[in-house]
Design goal:
By secondary structure, the chain is α+β, with helices and mostly antiparallel strands. Among the domains are: 12-207 and 295-314, Brix domain (Rossmann fold), CATH 3.40.50.10480; 423-490, no CATH class. 37% of the residues lie in helices and 16% in strands. The longest helix has 63 residues, at 337-399. It is elongated, with a radius of gyration of 54 Å. The two termini are 98 Å apart. Residues 345-360, 414-423 have a biased composition (Basic and acidic residues). Residues 1-14, 366-379, 497-506 have a biased composition (Basic residues). InterPro entries: Brix (IPR007109), PPAN-like (IPR045112). Residues 25-319 form the Brix domain.
């Protein structure tokens, strides 16, 4: 059986009601440099958290740099950039930058778990998301980001809280509907370790007043599918054996109380307690979740899970043309006031020198452009003059022809003269052959006669070797004389005789 097609309702993405494209933050979640497959999957899982205001199907080129994303971000109205990198020491770093000016926060990912790792684990309250909850941004819950009661103040806490709050649109309780709140992103800071716990949950609503085993048998549409196996009822004689038997007990005796849960234990379960029970103010996702019903709210962790530690804070953007700027905070490098002042002065000097070089380059570019614009009209005028001169030369060549080396004979007169000669020639042929001079004819055919006589002499020499030369010669002479007389009487030149070859002689 074919697998059913999963529809991605991309047309439902976008800003919520009452929001516009300008005030909704958008983000890029990318990987920079060479990373492992698990980090690539972590990038994809983080994109799901940032849905729907992120580039889910963004594909990074292997040779792409951070500057490329910083260049294209303003045209797409991207406000934040989250980049995962892998250092030479095999440490995973997460950079969170506010576009287009900064600052940039660098976190070290001490440990992380992917979505598939949490689903495959045997932990409770962990499962897959049912789908459809990524059409709206998650609820951001920040815990313990206030200043410590004892000790020095930590200014980086306020900066981190402001940065994380800017990743998601603000909550508008009056304009937002209850079914739009489907996910929760929990960020919890620990003052003892200095780390941030990054966890992602899905909100589920379950029936209240029902035990866990009864809820396990219920099939509710729209709830999270927990990673558990279906209940095994093969060893039970009645449904009560499964519903009332204490966990780990195999007895099926209904009369004994040792193998069954008491009513107090069932009521004291998490599903029966009133600590997480509420009355729904509006209709919620799922069957039976109507307004006014008493339901139990649970959080199911879908992942990913990360533990972050702030390492560095710079006032600019890492990878930009202007540079990352001054370092505001560093976890492992502490500077005194004098060192900070000297460092700031050196930064200002570098910045001034850089601005001077840019101004000089801009002036050189403007000067070269001005020179090009000045030279273009001259070139055009010179080309126009050359074209005019060429046109005048062509006109002059057409008007005055160069007659040097040509004859003065008129072609029409020459043609008429040739026609007259042809007419005269035809008249002479009609008059007869008597008008021709015999001497002229002998001059014309003198060369052919000499060739014919040489050939005939060779044939006679060859023939005399076998037969009488007198008989043959007399007959051939008579034939040649008769042929000459007939040809002279006709007035036409006889065709040249073929050359005979005998005994290898030409």
């Amino acid at each position: 059986m074919a697998r059913p097609r999963r529809k991605n309702r991309t047309h439902l993405k976008g800003p919520a009601k009452g929001e516009t494209e300008e005030n909704v933050p958008k983000s890029f979640v990318i990987k920079s440099g060479a990373v492992t497959k698990s980090i690539t999957q972590l990038v994809r899982d983080t994109r799901k958290i940032m849905e729907p205001n992120t580039a889910t199907r963004l594909r990074e080129r292997p040779n792409a740099r951070l500057r490329d994303y910083l260049t294209i971000a303003p045209s797409l109205k991207v406000t934040h950039l989250m980049a995962f990198t892998l250092t030479d020491a095999a440490n995973v770093h997460l950079r969170v930058a506010r576009l287009p000016q900064g600052p940039t926060l660098t976190f070290r990912v001490n440990k992380y778990s992917l979505m598939k790792d949490l689903v495959n684990s045997s932990l409770r309250n962990v499962g897959k998301s049912p789908g459809g909850e990524y059409r709206n941004p998650p609820l951001l819950v920040m815990n313990n980001f206030q200043q410590p009661a004892n000790g020095s103040a930590l200014p980086q806490l306020r900066l981190m809280s402001t940065m994380f709050q800017g990743l998601f649109p603000p909550i508008q309780v009056e304009k937002s509907a209850l079914p739009t709140f489907r996910r929760v992103l929990l960020l919890s800071y620990s003052h003892q370790t200095g780390c941030i716990s990054f966890r992602h949950f899905t909100i589920t609503v379950r029936p209240h007043g029902v035990s866990r085993r009864v809820r396990k048998l219920l099939t509710t549409t729209g709830t999270v599918k927990v990673s558990r196996k279906a209940p095994n009822l093969s060893n039970t004689e009645d449904i009560a054996d499964y519903l009332l038997r204490r966990a780990g007990s195999e007895t099926s005796n209904l009369t004994g109380q040792s193998g069954y849960d008491s009513m107090s234990e069932t009521e004291a379960s998490e599903g029966e307690s009133d600590t997480n029970a509420i009355e729904l103010p509006e209709d919620y996702v799922g069957r039976g979740n109507k307004k006014g019903e008493r339901k139990a709210v649970r959080l199911i962790e879908t992942g990913p899970r990360m533990e972050l530690r702030l390492i560095k804070v710079v006032e600019g953007l890492v990878g930009s043309k202007k540079g990352e700027g001054e370092t505001v905070f560093h976890e492992f490098v502490q500077k005194s006031k004098s060192e900070a002042v000297s460092m700031q002065e050196s930064h200002e000097q570098r910045r001034a020198a850089k601005d001077a070089r840019r101004a000089e380059q801009a002036a050189n570019v403007a000067r070269k452009k001005a020179e090009k614009t000045k030279s273009k009209p001259k070139r055009k005028s010179a080309e126009g003059e050359d074209d005019e001169e060429e046109g005048e030369d062509e006109e002059s060549s057409e008007g005055d022809l160069d007659v040097e080396g040509l004859s003065d004979i008129d072609p029409e007169e020459e043609l008429q003269r040739l026609r007259d000669r042809k007419v005269n020639f035809k008249g002479q042929n009609q008059a007869g052959d008597d008008d021709y001079d015999d001497e002229d004819e002998d001059d014309d055919f003198e060369y052919e006669d000499r060739v014919n006589q040489a050939d005939q002499q060779e044939d006679i020499d060859d023939w005399d070797a076998d037969v009488g030369a007198a008989d043959v010669s007399s007959e051939e002479d008579e034939e040649e004389q008769g042929g000459n007389e007939s040809s002279e009487s006709e007035g036409e030149a006889p065709p040249p005789p073929r050359k005979k070859r005998s005994n290898g002689k030409k």
